[in-house]
Amino acid sequence: MNEVNPQPSGPAAASALGNGPWPVLDVQERRILGVLVEKAKTTPDAYPMSVNGLVTGANQKSNRDPLLNLSELDVEDILVRCQKKDLAIKITGGRVIRWRHSLYEAWHVDKVDLAVLAELLLRGPQTEGELRTRASRMEPIDDLDALRAVLQPLVKRNLVVYLTPEDRRGAVLTHGFHDPQELKQLRMRQMAEPPPQAGSAPTRADTPPPVAPSGLAEAQKEIAALKQTVAALQGEVRELREELNKLKQSLGV
Fold first, then answer.
1. Rounded to an integer, what is the distance from CA 220 to the centroid of its chain?
2. Which of 227, 159, 169 has the alpha carbon at shortest distance from 193?
3. 100 by DSSP, 3-state: which?
């Protein structure tokens, strides 16, 4: 199933779509919703996702912070919690139960908005430069000016929150689904960091590392992500084989 984008975009549309308050999401809920969005955009043939696929995606070592070790039972419980918040939908009727997110409907965002939010859900606070590079895995964002144009209505709607002054070099931001106390702690931690000085060495947000090491690192991350996807698909094949064997036994074959 290909991803659909039922929502309008742009500042005018955003102004009529609500500013929250948005539900608090715990670390596990953020991870599962982030994985659902990520896989819908990067591996649409495997979407909607099985619980087995979500376990693999949630515990992935690349593109994740913090690292988690969720079980199938954990993921099933998290999905039920997300379903109760109208953020996830169970797809039944096939041999394997699958899940999809309902974030376009819940948050009234477009495809690029959701890519940005998903990256924040998967990794938490990060600089604008990091966010642009990472979210571009899912939807193209040409440069920082393009990212800031996307962020402006999201910030106005409290879906995205800056932890440092927006005009600060290497500004850091996060999603708007934190508990207020957690958000306060994140802001205090970021504000305690000294701002980059004019003339100092460029930060990751301003200048990318040399091409060769960066390319190698990104290639390694992509390989790791592909291995995780293959593992998830292998798990789904095992599930289908088990279902087929049960069907044969019931038919006496």
1. 20
2. 169
3. strand
